[in-house]
């Protein structure tokens, strides 16, 4: 029985007519290699940004349900156009919306989570030798039956979810970069492409600013053992494999330096020092679908004093977070700071090497970069710093841990079990 291959093409990969034709040729090549092919497409170029702009031209605070109706149109356009291009190449293709493809989600508009993939229609089309094109980033709520969207980068999650449901041999993520790098090449020119990254490392990288893959797509891939191959739409050659840790080789001390400048800090002054207040704060934020990253709270040192608490959220969630906190009235005042950034080092080898944190702090100190908040996990250290210092911090840490292109790269995985089973 032919293997099934899942492919995903990002917005830059389908931006113009020639880009769509290029994506169509890759899809057709996979089909002509004997595979069954399901491809997920993002909206073309800046289409989603343009739709968001149009919404704000007519409404200061557009309704979330109607935003989903609006934003879901971009991916549908890409799929229909690509199906036309594939037809001209002599193959039969069918384009499906997220709901037609069986992507069932919860009811969290603009940030929905996939609950189930009912892929019977896709399987039927594949059985008829058709190429199936699915609009990414969207689904249908199982409760309300409304159109939902999955948040920025949600097409990655669509592709991984379909790969899992269809037992695909690999999920090929095509983008405008050649793979996952040791740092953002726009900031660090000698950043090197990584041949292999573990799911755990990629999760930490995605959560701390790396934009190659959406965080939830990596979580889904890890939970369902979906092999991801992240590669370039514009050139041939292998990209970066994202695999289970048991499949990877000996881990380096530090794999990559990541960063984000899309962070904001919320500080609560005079928080009531009593049991249950923190649960009330973060429970309310969770109910409003606000993702919280770092949290710091001081302990009052004298009777009757109140605590102060700071936490970070994505810049897009700042207004909602402030409204939630002010609404529950647990502090004397609320202040915000949008001029912050986050720099992180990630590496599975950190588990067994002492002194990594000290080296991070010393490196930033030597550059006169003040650390405002710190968060750690067994394989990640993140520091909140002033946004103006982020690029300098990334370069300094990349250099301090010898991550440049001239450094010894990790070995390629050996054996067929470590390689994607389709190379296009």
Can you walk through the features of this model?
There is one protein chain. This protein is an alpha/beta fold. The protein folds into 2 domains: 4-246, Acetylglutamate kinase-like (Carbamate kinase, 3-Layer(aba) Sandwich); 258-400, VC0802-like (2-Layer Sandwich), CATH 3.30.2130.10. Helices cover 32% and strands 26% of the residues. It has 12 helices and 18 strands. The strands form 3 sheets. Strands 3-6-2-1-9-11-12-10 form an 8-stranded mixed sheet, with helices on both faces. A 6-stranded antiparallel sheet has the order 14-15-13-16-18-17. Strands 5-4-7-8 form a 4-stranded mixed sheet. α9 crosses α10 and α11 (356-366) packs across α12 (390-400). The longest helix has 16 residues, at 17-32. It is globular, with a radius of gyration of 23 Å. Mean pLDDT is 90; it is low at 408-424.
